[in-house]
Design a protein that fits this description.
heterodimer, A: alpha+beta, Fusion Protein Consisting Of Minor Coat Protein, Glycine Rich Linker, Tola, And A His Tag, Chain: A, Domain 2, three-stranded antiparallel beta sheet, two-stranded antiparallel ribbon, 5 strands, elongated, B: alpha+beta, Rossmann fold, Neuraminidase, 2 domains, six-stranded mixed beta sheet, 44% strand
Chain lengths: 250, 447
């Protein structure tokens, strides 16, 4: 017989993630115009005396509305801008706090190195692709090097259904995300790698991260990918180029 | 050595067995709204009692999550999933979501959180999770007075929207508009303001005088509007937080649509002088009025570009009312609208890329957008009568008003606010307590 606490599995607590603490000002409590305020006060007096007035105070609204929100004239507290609360001991440096786990990864230097390596791979891929378009002999061997049209169509059709394009993307920007996949023979993904990873940290490119995440979600949702049953060596490494521009430009 | 070179050359000439990397272009996807689960914010027993006392709400956590859910749904970009399908309880989900449960109901993103009553204040902590990647995307906490609970919902929506779409939200904002009551021939018009979702309506004027065209200052919560005092148009400034009103000036003849410059330091408007309507600016510090256009035609409805360098306006100088742009000093006037029909009320997008307008063609009114060079005209909505588009602060949604036709007895008239996004598909009635016209959208309150 073992001790119960020893038999118990350790509690699987999630890692403690700090939160950014923000104070919200009381701006919602709008005052009436001063003239209106005076008159409304008068009306309130009159109402007490059960005399109706031409100037009605704001209608009482539906139940969901916060009845307890004080009238602005009760609340002429000075409006503070939203400010960060300092007493939160868990609070980290703003830069660190704002980022999610994804972002933390991006800030990590080795990714830049990876991006450089990726670039060299891309260049290699581009040149080989170009040459394959030019030479006839290689064209004959297309089956050996690429996917057949029907194989490609099957894969595309599958991913089209999984990819929810974020509708808020700016349609006049470069909306291409290239993801390199390493696949198992059954089409499940061993590794996925965003090739233009460095772009995520560039200023004004916030939408790119959103787009890249949507592409990664599509791949996750679609697993296992509809890959050919044969020729694993051909497609064990695969690059998907997600381009939302055509869809968003309509 | 020679042999070595020959072998090396031969090795290079032998075709490599390595395969080229296969690339597949994915140029299509579905444009369905993103499925998102908004788990009700959890609430401990003590906080529940306190909030019940203060706000008279049984479950403030659920109420805040409803605000978030409604905002997300109204954006047209998200599909909040039915709460009945949720398998995990809110308090546990906030601690550690079981992603399999959430992906089972097809959620791609998940919002969890908790509300606490702390030091007489409301503290909300929320997290956004990527369900498919099984990762946390964002964690934030807010504290405020309990009466601000709806704003907390709006701010959470803004943060989620920004994280998932890559552009700023527009939910913690207000709409100012002209509230209308009474028969069409004898309307009582008051200035009213509400949250962008139609809640928290407040009236800012009494309805004794006619008020028209309220416009927000893009940098703060000041409003400029036009009111008739003894039949003379008067331009007012109103600080909606302090309620202090100020007369900017009396202007002659027909004065139209005062609007702020992007830095909030000037007002631009049109008024008629010597029988000719032109565009003028007024510096709010020294009250100096400067004439911007000087043309025998009618020039009205000026609106600055967000960088303040250009102004769009409408003019009938070509014989018909069309949209023009010019530099902010009035030089380089250029016509940009060339379609059939009449164009009016041009408004420059806060993003700077588009100009929204009202178009009248063959008896129908359209709200549309075009690029700033006049290309790419898109009509978003058509109706019997509608006008006065105003942009959301992120430049994605337009709010405008629409009037219905009266019947043969003069009845059935109504004026309502509507919103539509740039896709033209997400058109929605914006709830107001009374009839409403001339809406203007504020900038984000929390920025």
């Amino acid at each position: 017989m073992s001790l119960p606490f020893l038999a118990k599995k350790p509690i699987d607590l999630p890692p403690i993630v700090s939160v950014e603490l923000i104070q919200i000002s009381e701006k919602t409590n709008l005052p009436f115009a001063p003239k209106a305020k005076k008159i409304i006060e008068e009306i309130k007096k009159k109402e007490k005396e059960k005399i109706t007035s031409e100037q009605a105070p704001p209608k009482k609204v539906k139940k969901e509305k916060p009845d307890a929100i004080p009238l602005p004239d009760d609340n002429i507290e000075k409006i503070k801008e939203i400010e960060e609360k300092k007493q939160n001991p868990e609070k980290l440096d703003e830069k660190i706090k704002q980022v999610s786990e994804f972002e933390k990864k991006e800030l990590f230097d080795p990714n830049n190195i990876a991006a450089l390596i990726d670039k060299s791979k891309e260049e290699f891929a581009e040149t080989t692709q170009k040459t394959s378009k030019v030479t006839q002999s290689q064209d004959k061997n297309a089956d050996a090097f690429g996917l057949t049209l029907s194989e490609e169509d099957a894969l595309k059709a599958q991913i089209f259904g999984c990819w929810s394009i974020p509708l808020g993307l700016p349609y006049n920007e470069n909306l291409l995300v290239r993801i390199k996949l390493q696949l198992k023979p059954d089409g499940t993904v061993i590794k996925s790698e965003i090739l233009d990873h460095a772009r995520m940290n560039k200023p004004g490119q916030g939408f790119y991260k959103v787009l890249a995440e949507s592409a990664l979600r599509a791949i996750t949702m679609c697993q296992p990918l509809r890959v050919p049953t044969k020729g694993y060596e051909r497609w064990k490494d695969l690059q998907l180029n997600f381009d939302a521009r055509e869809m968003l430009e309509g | 050595m020679r042999y070595f070179k020959v072998i090396l050359i031969l090795l290079l000439l032998i075709p490599s067995k390595a395969f080229a990397l296969i690339e597949v272009d994915i140029t299509r996807g579905n444009l369905n709204p993103l499925p998102i689960a908004v788990s009700p914010l959890s609430l401990d027993a003590n906080s529940k009692t306190e909030f019940k006392k203060i706000l008279n709400k049984d479950d403030i956590g659920s109420e805040i999550s409803k605000v978030v859910e409604n905002n997300l749904r109204a954006s047209g970009l998200f599909n909040p999933l039915d709460k009945d399908a949720f398998l995990q309880k809110p308090d546990i989900a906030h601690l550690k979501p079981r992603f399999e449960d959430w992906s089972l109901i097809k959620a791609q993103a998940l919002i969890t959180g908790k509300v606490i009553f702390q030091d007489e204040k409301l503290r909300v902590e929320f997290r956004l999770w990527d369900v498919l990647a099984g990762k946390e995307m964002m964690a934030l906490a807010f504290t405020t007075v309990p009466s601000n609970w709806r704003r907390v919902g709006h701010i959470i929506t803004d943060k989620v929207y920004e994280r998932l779409t890559g552009e700023k939200g527009y939910f913690d904002t207000r709409i100012i508009y002209v509230s209308e009551e009474g028969p069409k021939t004898k309307r009582i018009k008051k200035l009213a303001i509400m949250d962008q979702d139609g809640f928290n309506t407040k009236y800012l004027t009494l309805g004794n005088e006619l008020v028209l065209t309220p416009r927000f200052n893009p940098t703060n919560q000041m409003v400029t509007y036009l009111s008739y005092f003894r039949n003379l148009p008067r331009v007012y400034l109103l600080d909606i937080e302090t309620g202090i009103q100020e007369v900017v000036g009396d202007f002659p003849g027909m004065t139209f649509a005062p609007r702020f410059s992007p830095d909030g330091k000037k007002i631009i408007m049109s008024f008629a002088k010597d029988g000719n309507s032109d565009i003028y600016t007024m510096d709010l510090e020294n009250r100096i009025v400067e004439r911007i256009t000087n043309h025998p035609s009618i020039d009205t409805s000026p609106s600055y570009s967000p960088d303040g360098k250009y102004i769009c306006f409408n003019s009938d100088r070509s014989g018909y009312q069309q949209i023009y742009i010019m530099k902010s000093d009035g030089s380089n006037v250029k016509r940009i609208s060339f379609g059939k029909g009449l164009y009016g009320t041009p408004v420059w997008s806060p993003r700077g890329d588009l100009i929204a307008f009202t178009k009248l063609h063959k008896g129908k009114f359209y709200i549309g957008v075009m690029r700033t060079d006049g290309s790419g005209e898109r009509l978003l909505t058509e109706n019997y009568y509608q006008e006065a588009p105003s942009w959301s602060p992120n430049g994605r949604v337009l709010i405008f008003y629409r009037e219905t036709k009266t019947d043969s007895e003069g009845k059935g008239f109504s004026a309502k606010l509507w919103s539509i996004d740039l896709t033209g598909y997400n058109e929605r009635l914006v709830n107001t307590e009374s009839d409403a016209s001339d809406p203007s959208w504020s900038s984000l309150l929390s920025n």
